[in-house]
């Protein structure tokens, strides 16, 4: 594997010169407290956008109150107007699912538009009884993995769903066992699709994204490794890593190298690289790209430049939201501020509910950039700006 200079966003030097964009922000779906006879939606997160050239699709996870609470489901909203203003009411792609003792946990992980216009959705799934989950939170979450009495996840898989009527009806057409992705599938220059996970990155040459998924990921992963919100921490400990790696997103440079950027627990992103179209990956290295321990989104703009969308200020409550742009895929030194509102408390307090701009993701649709994110993991919001503003 060839070495390359460290990837950096040059935060200390470049951010003071950042350009604040003129952005239209709107609340796409407010979180609401549930009643005695209906589940609530006071937890909403993991939002992602897709476009078929005419219709916008927004998918996200929805739960009663807490992060990854039993009964969580995957939802979809659609929009057909040119301005991204008028959205449908949310409806489930995968509704509440039965589990061992009650409901299991479903996580929305994006929608992919197939070449024929049909849709493929990815719903992560794992199970744990609600009493077990209360034990998990009381014990401090994943930091207590391996402690006596800790209750492990079970039945980890990704449900692959298909819709032939632009999101109206869905049916399951496949599964990927032992895996919950971070983002929906992203195409490489060859057309191969990669599902960025935490430590695993399955790939397929099926353009619909429904079949042919081959397992790939960080080297030295123990046999049978699960990649889910618990498994990636176990994987790091078994690999002997000095830090955790999770929530991957990639870009590909013109030399064919795929750069998979990884969240860590040290407020800088790491990178693992593939020179064989995603079949094998290098040992991850820490970069000089700053971060506040949150999910990010990397890719290429229509003009060929590279972008990193993230909340890069260390120790921040996930604000400001910044689009960093690079000419060469190494120095992301042009910074554009999409939003810099201060953080606020959630209206309905819950476990792990914080962050002004949570888990952002961006697409370009009809000449505009659309960025979706959660606010305090409670509301789903959408920002829109002109692509010309990035010139």
What do you see in this structure?
- The two termini are 34 Å apart.
- The longest helix has 9 residues.
- It is built from three helices and 24 strands.
- The protein has a domain of 147 residues: Neuraminidase.
- The strands form six sheets. A five-stranded mixed sheet has the order 1-21-20-19-18, with no helix packed on it.
- With 391 residues, the protein is mainly beta.
Estimated share of beta-strand residues: 35-45%
Q: Can you tell me the CATH topology of the domain at 31-177?
A: Neuraminidase
In this structure, how is the largest beta sheet organized? 5 strands, mixed
Q: Give the terminus-to-terminus CA distance.
A: 34 Å
What is the average of the pLDDT values? 92
- The secondary structure category is mainly beta
- The first-level CATH class of the domain at 31-177 is given as Mainly Beta
Element string (H = helix, E = strand): HEEEEEEEEHEEEEEHEEEEEEEEEEE
- Overall, the morphology is globular
Helix content: under 10%
Q: What is the correct CATH architecture of the domain at 31-177?
A: 6 Propeller
Note the total helix count: 3
Total E-strand runs: 24
Uncertain regions: pLDDT < 50 for 5+ in a row? none
Reading side by side through the largest sheet, how are the strands ordered? 1-21-20-19-18
Whole-angstrom Rg: 19 Å
What's the short story on this structure?
By secondary structure, the chain is mostly beta strands. It has a domain at 31-177: Neuraminidase, CATH 2.120.10.
Give the topology, please.
Elements: H1 11-14, E1 19-20, E2 24-29, E3 43-51, E4 56-63, E5 73-79, E6 91-94, E7 105-113, E8 119-127, H2 130-138, E9 154-163, E10 171-177, E11 186-187, E12 193-194, E13 203-204, H3 231-239, E14 246-252, E15 258-263, E16 268-274, E17 285-290, E18 297-300, E19 306-310, E20 321-326, E21 334-339, E22 358-365, E23 368-375, E24 379-386
Parallel strand pairs: 1-21
Antiparallel strand pairs: 2-24, 3-4, 4-5, 5-6, 7-8, 8-9, 9-10, 11-12, 12-13, 14-15, 15-16, 16-17, 18-19, 19-20, 20-21, 22-23, 23-24
